[in-house]
Amino acid sequence: MQPETTRAGRKARPEWADGLRQLYDSVVNEPLPDSFADLISKLDDTGK
Amino acid sequence: MSKAPAPAGPLDRPASAPSGQHRSESDRIAFKREMTAVIPHLRAFARGLCGRPDLADDLVQETLLKAWAAQDRFEPGTSMRAWTFVILRNAYLTDMRRNRFRGEYDEGVAERTLTAPAGQEGPLHLADMHRALLTLPHERREALLLVGAGGFSYEEAAEICGCAVGTIKSRVGRARAALSRMIENGEMPRRGKGGEDAAHRAIMKDLDHVAHGGTLD
């Protein structure tokens, strides 16, 4: 138990909420490994 | 997957498609284009779920193959991202039950890949965030990922997880409360100081629980 830390971020979105989104976006924005292009291109022949 | 004969009903086919045979070439191309477009999102969701980038990408590959095989069941015009997330989630749960994710959290890789973009450096390192996230029970983690990171509505998230909207709200609420508590009390799992142990323990607990047919509400 902490003493009363009346942090301003309590009611507003917690400050880490942006971090969560950033975490997700940081992966979304990564360049795709080549293995994915390989896989996608192979789907042409094997499409069921 | 089930080789459904060409659907007869107009409801099954977009108006532009020729009726009958020929699950048209253009359908296939459109499907593939849409599926390709959501790969980055699948990777982000998978990484958040399982923590290990290499396993996450394996999971995405598995998902893509399954989605491709099941493409007849995709309704054009609906959300490809939501549809593929369901497949990814099911694959993850199956793998979890088979204990495939009993590897340890790969600290080194997370450290490399989760650096905050320059200029946006907050007080919170993204890797810390990720570690904290990984200490949450799986069902809360995925709910928070879908709503708080992926931007899905509660309704969409409920559909993806196959549960009630109220359940999702409660999971997200509990996940948020747990993260807030960790952060405000300075109890973020720290790297090298047993933080990954905490994350690991939490995942192990999930695994045992789920392996015994439990849920994590």
Automatic annotation (TrEMBL), chain A:
It holds the Pfam family NepR. InterPro entries: NepR. Residues 13-45 form the Anti-sigma factor NepR domain. This is Anti-sigma factor NepR domain-containing protein.
Automatic annotation (TrEMBL), chain B:
One of its GO terms (biological process) is DNA-templated transcription initiation. GO terms for molecular function: DNA binding; sigma factor activity. It holds the Pfam family Sigma70_r2. Residues 38-100 form the RNA polymerase sigma-70 region domain. Residues 128-179 form the RNA polymerase sigma factor 70 region 4 type domain. Keywords: Sigma factor, Transcription, Transcription regulation. Residues 1-26 are annotated as: Disordered. InterPro entries: RNA_pol_sigma-70-like, RNA_pol_sigma-70_dom, RNA_pol_sigma70_r2, RNA_pol_sigma70_r4_t2, RNA_pol_sigma_r2, RNA_pol_sigma_r3/r4-like, WH-like_DNA-bd_sf. Belongs to the sigma-70 factor family. ECF subfamily. PANTHER family: RNA POLYMERASE ECF-TYPE SIGMA FACTO, RNA POLYMERASE SIGMA FACTOR RFAY-RELATED. This is Sigma-70 family RNA polymerase sigma factor.
